[in-house]
Amino acid sequence: MPRLPRDFYNRDTVTVAHELLGKILVHQIDGLARMARIVEVEAYLGPGDLAAHSARGLTPRTRAMFGPPGHAYVYLIYGMHHCLNVVTEPEGSGTGVLLRAVEPIANIEGNTRGPGLLTRAMGIDKRHYGHDLCSDELHLLAPLHETQEIEIVASPRIGVPYAQEWADKPLRFHILGNRYVSRK
Which alpha helices (H) appear in the chain, and where do they start and end? Predict the structure, then answer.
């Protein structure tokens, strides 16, 4: 399966979010590849998006989100869950796509229905902050053949009521009928 090139990420965030669905997330740990199919994502559209961390501007925490496309923005929520975002668009945009749920393919134990659960199951944490997603250790692949047609559902993002009008925007995308999609 071909690795996603940097140009894949250097595009409109909503387009990238749609096209990440069905792609394969791979994390190599001690020679073992943990692999999972992406089934749910959320788009964050930069400083004007009140739900995005980048709405607060460039800070030590958000530095990676303003970095080059195709890198990981990993952060801790509730003091216990890591979340993985894929940085999109040109450097300085502050845009990204949160990976919300994955369908296990190989070498994964545990629940993957939610952003904190998927990172735990995949072994992804703060050490991956700013990590190049075109590297050997942590990357995304395009399946050689789609086994089925993907129908995408759009809905409001989850857990961002503070974001005013941005809370209701349909920027959460998931594969219709996939049993690994998280619940609201």
Answer: 6-9, 13-20, 115-122
Are 9 and 17 in contact, with CB atoms under 8 Å apart?
no
Strand ranges in 66-134 using DSSP code E only, listed in sequence order: 72-77, 81-88, 95-106
Q: Which residue type does 174 have?
A: H
What tokens were used for 142? 């395009």
- Sequence ranges of the domains in the chain: 6-175
pLDDT tens, residue by residue, 1-55: 789 999 999 999 999 999 999 999 999 999 999 999 999 999 999 999 999 999 9
- Rounded to an integer, what distance in angstroms lies between the CA atom of residue 8 and that of residue 110? 29
DSSP class of residue 113 equals: B
Longest pairwise C-alpha distance within the chain: 45
- 154 by DSSP, 3-state: which? strand
DSSP state of 124: -
- Identify any residues that bridge with 36 across adjacent strands, giving them in sequence order: 25, 104
pTM for this entry: 0.95
Query: The domain 6-175 belongs to what CATH superfamily?
Result: Methylpurine-DNA glycosylase (MPG) (3.10.300.10)
CA 3-6-9 angle, to 5 degrees, is 100
Please write the tens of the pLDDT for every residue from 117-146: 999 999 999 999 999 999 999 999 998 766
